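Whether sequence alone determines local backbone shape is best considered at the level of individual chains. For completeness, the protein is quoted in full, as a sequence line and a line of structure tokens:
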Amino acid sequence: MAPTAPIPRRSLLKAAAVAGAAAQFSWALGRDGARAADAGAAAADRPVSVGWLEDGGAGAAPGSTFGVPWPRGVHPAGTAFALATDGGAAVPVQTWPTAYWPDGTLKWTAHAVGGATADAERFTLAAGTPAAPATKVTVTETRTTITVDTGVIKAVIGKDGRALVRSVTRGTTPIATDGRLVLLRQGELDDDGGHGGRGSAAWERFDGEISGAKTEQDGPVRAVVRLDGKHRKGSRSWLPFSVRLYFYAGAESFRMVHTLTYDGDQRAGRTTGDFIRGLGVRFTVPMRDAAYDRHIRIAGEGDGFLTEAVKGITGLRRDPGAPIRTAQVRGERLPDPATWDQRVTTRLAAIPTWGDYTLAQLSADGFTLRKRTKPGHGWIAAGGGGRAGGFGYVGGVSGGLSFGLRDFWRRHPAQLDIRGAAGDAAEVTLWLWSPEAPPMDLRFYHDGMGQDTYPKQLEGLNITYEDYEPGFGTPYGIARTSELMFWANAATPSASSLVAQNAAVRTPPQLAASPEDLSGAGVFGGLFAPVDRSTPARARIEDQLDFLFTYYKDQAEQRRWYGFWDYGDIMHTYDEDRHQWRYDVGGYAWDNSELSPDLWLWYAYLRSGRADIFRFAEALTRHTGEVDVYHLGEWAGLGTRHGVQHFADSAKQQRISTAVYRRPYYYLTADERVGDLMHALVDSDETFLVLDPLRKVRTEPYEPDRNALSIGFGTDWSGLAAAWLTEWERGGPKAAKAEARLRSTMETIAAQPNGFVQGSGLYDLDTGGFAVAERPVVNVSHLSAMFGLVEMCAELIGLIDLPEFENAWLDYCRYFNATKAEQKARYGTDFGSLLLFQGHSRQDAYAAARLNDDQLAARAWRKFYDSDGYTAAMVWDKTPLAGPDVLEPGYENLRINSNETALFGLAAIQNLALVGDRITP
């Protein structure tokens, strides 16, 4: 039976002493006594093992950046690190801190390696003097430009104007110029034209215009330049962009991370507005070689390529000679035409030159490829297929540009254009949104159906689970980030080189620390441990976790969860009658991080090191942090609850935008864009002045007051705490404020008459603390802890020594799954009707580990197996599906839904880590 009284401080100390204080209060809760207090010191000289997520090493990528955690107290700030192959060869590495422990020692560090020097499969990282690259990447600035020199290529980047990348040269040879952003706007749709809303209005072209430029890193291994601006035509500027350019020492390529934030006007019921018809990145490529020495390469499916010359000399009626034909197909310089069969040489002018090519991927399952000689002449079909790589090359034997867009087919409609390759210069455009697709239509999907009052909207919620409110289903302020790569080649790449470049676009090589090192550092609350199948009970749970991940990976493919705005997200609930996810039913459609699937996937990766889980979680993080969150306007800093459209629901809340979902990806990769997203949330407590999350269900009058804002201790505070913790440990510009907010809110939550069970408090934006209520209240929701609160409290208790806060949290953990009688004995009343006991079993496990309480550990496993969710009676099977019941063949499991999947996954992972040694069969 669970304890029925508050936990005195001396009881905590006694329990810790019984179990061994160091083991119980270490980060790695639930481990055996091996994790003693001096474990960190003992590990000081132990290197971290680092390897590639996928086979193949660095491949053709310019380099890789990865994050490594360190145990508390091991490495002081300023420690230098050295990287070596397992064979002992030194590898040049650039290091910078990304997080600190409260004692000032390093918690996370980021490391960059160049592609050319990272051919080994495994490495070791340890404190030491780093090797310097043979050729450093250098950055020089003038008033108008930033020049980055990798030692192989040199890029001149504009600080103003419309050319982001003014030139890219290799040696003295110009490879590309005038790298710029292009936007096509359409102001009117033809909804009744029978053309899918393509519209007949004229297009307007806007060009990206730089408003700010900053060098964020300047070598020696890695350099990063950030450019910000908007798209402009005449006097109008709109669609803010943020572009980062990444360069590595010795690389012939560079990476671009492009973020667009939508600030146009698209309103339901109107056919006029700001509709994006095309959105792209464009470069000009000088064409110096003879037309027969100019080459086009466009990737199809897998390793397939269109391999052509601008002026082809194969397949002619007259044969120039086998060596000549072979050389052209290989992309090699052809001998002087005077040495060819003269029946060809004298007729070269009669062979067409093909200057324009287009590959359009308008769906996840089909692309078309066509070409023409020049504008004003007809297009010729050049092939097609299913899923193109989004990669190509244009140039000649004296050099050219390779270019690629990641997740090309997954984020359709996308397109690659080559124009003018037969002239003095070709234009290459990588379209993030294809101009051949219907215009981007972000209008709300229904007319409100008369739901013009809160009571009517609550009725709608009770039938479709959609929380509708007029004007709230707006895309204004949502964003999308895309990744691109470019190579400045000295000559037309060989077939094998092109395949390698295409692979680097498709799956950028990523270095990663091992699960043992990730777990051993005690990060993320110590709530995960490496996969362990040492007993039948453990193995069974591991099999179930594997089943669930595979199920969702397969559903993404089977159900085509793809598209520019959709890719990365999962669906919420299944419709067993239609054998379809409820994509069109209110709040049951897109999941939008409901009940923390992001955390399930990241914890699943941290403990397994599996590349497929990492990539799935990466796509989810890219999506949910951008598309499901507002970055402009009055709701900036808030996310949108699950719905038919990612921005449709009127519930705009911290629980979706929370930094707790972004932290793992940021620390594992040092991704600057995700870092921006988390920093932007530091002041999101201000949003409670703008929007009351409980406005529709309050029974008493409430007006937001700067010094008395109603904020919940669960989904609200956990999101705020995650942003504050991240800013504090990163040492950001608002770190002092963030730490003060953390401490004051923790102190004033702990001071409430019922602690977390109080439910909410009145928050003062000026003092950063909650008013302490005069009387105890029991206000417990099954949702409060399910959006990162469990994980935040575990981290904060390990970072900030505040026994009263720990007591309050442990009380909440012990009593949520307690009996009503136990709840009433402790608080004077029970918690009412609750749900999600399986998900809350991890709170039992946490309290059991902190208190060394076998009864709580037993209850954790009992609630895990036999309460709700996927219980011991769950049938882990796959029922085949075929037509005419479904659109595409596949399989289903009617029992699976995303709420229970996320909570089962987190409970299984955390229970195994915390009380796995006390698992029941």
